[in-house]
From TrEMBL:
Family: Belongs to the NAD(P)-dependent epimerase/dehydratase family. Dihydroflavonol-4-reductase subfamily.
Domain NAD-dependent epimerase/dehydratase: 6-250
Protein name: NAD-dependent epimerase/dehydratase domain-containing protein
A Pfam family that the UniProt record links to this protein: Epimerase
Key words of the record: Oxidoreductase
Source organism (scientific name): Stichopus japonicus (Sea cucumber)
Domain of life: Eukaryota
InterPro entries linked: Epimerase_deHydtase, NAD(P)-bd_dom_sf, NAD(P)_dehydrat-like
GO molecular function terms noted in the UniProt entry: oxidoreductase activity, acting on the CH-OH group of donors, NAD or NADP as acceptor
Length: 353
């Protein structure tokens, strides 16, 4: 039997591992890139996914900043899902540590795809769509683009906007022989169960909630989506004719951080965890921002509302978003079961379905 082959870049990442799993389950042959094959924490869970599906997963080493490695990585693949990009929780002093691998890395991958593959699905972000809106009646859509000069556009936000823009510009400039189709997936904050032992910003965020160490939460609103829906969106957008040439927001909906804490407290409070639900006054964050660089990011988002229109996700990709309670609780249970958060004495595990 001849399987269609898909390259997934950054295969050991939080989102990519779910993409790899769904592709394998759908019968594809998958080649995944990792920066090092020598890290068992990142590689072993992927190998298990491959072993469970007739060894249809091959892993190869590739770095975004090494332009030469991508020709071999792409060779023989019908499709490419490009998820690899730096996603740190805090911003480094030199923004180019994030922006350069995101933009140059995306172009390195796309140049290797020219004239070779049918379609590339690029993992962009809602960060490339917009940062906040004026009130609960407004939402951002695929027509919107973040202004990277906006005061709230931290290096990560810039990296996602500039990398996605570079990808569209590059693809539009290709001649007929070099052409491939391009589609982007633009997720909001992605939460949900983990498949690998890797760290990652989404994982660190929920771990921090469950640790109960924070005295309070800034008054920040975030749009959230489920990692299983995000992975599904990549797999569907890879072959769906209507997806080519389009951006696709994947978002379930908005929530204040205190509401996320509330969901975790209701579920995990009786099981010995103390997630924070208390909102700290805005002035504490403003004062904190003088001393802690992370708080500078929070300061510009205080009290701001955000929402993204998920019509294309539901009507074109035909993905109905999972309820946020399920996403958040499943992630909490998975972090505890996988040893990322210590099991408390009162821990009972997931009882409801
Ligand atoms: P992870 O940090 O778990 O995964 C990022 C992946 O990118 C890792 O596999 C990492 O490899 C790889 N990577 C980073 N730098 C390089 C490099 N220089 N060369 C090769 N690979 C590199 O993050 P997520 O899974 O959360 O993010 C995946 C994608 O989704 C990113 O593009 C991110 O911007 C996007 N996204 C994520 C959201 C979220 O809330 N999680 C929301 C919206 C978009 P290594 O394991 O070697 O470090």
């Amino acid at each position: 039997m001849l399987y269609l082959e898909v390259l997934v870049t950054g295969a050991s990442g939080f989102i990519a591992a779910h993409v790899v799993q769904q592709l394998l389950q759908e019968g594809y042959q998958v080649r995944g890139t990792v920066r090092s094959l020598k890290n068992p924490l990142k590689v072993d869970p992927l190998k298990k996914l491959g072993e469970a599906t007739d060894n249809r997963l091959e892993l190869v080493e590739a770095d975004l900043l090494d332009a030469d490695c991508w020709t071999n990585a792409v060779d023989g693949c019908d499709y490419v899902i490009h998820t690899a990009s730096p996603f740190p929780l805090s911003t480094p002093s030199d923004e180019n540590e994030i922006i350069k691998p995101a933009v140059d890395g995306t172009l390195n991958v796309l140049k290797a795809c020219a004239g070779k593959v049918k379609r590339v699905v690029l993992t962009s972000s809602c960060a490339a769509v917009g940062i906040y809106v004026n009130g609960p009646d407004e939402s951002l859509s695929e027509k919107d683009w973040t202004d990277e000069k906006h005061p709230a556009a931290i290096a990560y936000v810039k990296s996602k906007k500039l990398a996605e823009k570079a990808a569209w510009d590059y693809q539009k400039g290709l001649n007929d022989e070099q052409q491939f189709e391009l589609a982007t997936i633009n997720p909001s904050l992605v939460l949900g169960p983990i498949l690998t032992q890797q760290g990652g910003s989404s994982i660190d965020l929920l771990k921090r909630f469950l640790s109960g160490k924070d005295i309070g939460l800034p008054r920040i609103c975030m749009c959230i989506c489920d990692v299983r829906d995000v992975a599904r969106a990549h797999v569907v957008a890879m072959t769906l004719p209507e997806a080519a040439g389009n951006r696709h927001i994947v978002s379930t909906g908005p929530m204040w951080l205190s509401e996320v804490g509330g969901i975790l407290k209701e579920e995990f409070g009786p099981q010995g965890y103390k997630p924070t639900t208390r909102t700290v006054p805005d002035f504490t964050v403003k004062i904190g921002s003088w001393f802690v660089s992370e708080m500078k990011t929070y300061k510009s988002l205080l009290g701001k509302y955000v929402n993204y229109d998920n019509t294309r996700m539901r009507e074109v990709l035909k993905i109905e978003p999972r309820p946020l309670k399920e996403t958040i609780c499943d992630m909490g249970y998975s972090l505890i079961e996988e040893g990322k958060v210590a099991k408390s004495k009162k821990y009972k595990g997931k009882t409801s379905s």
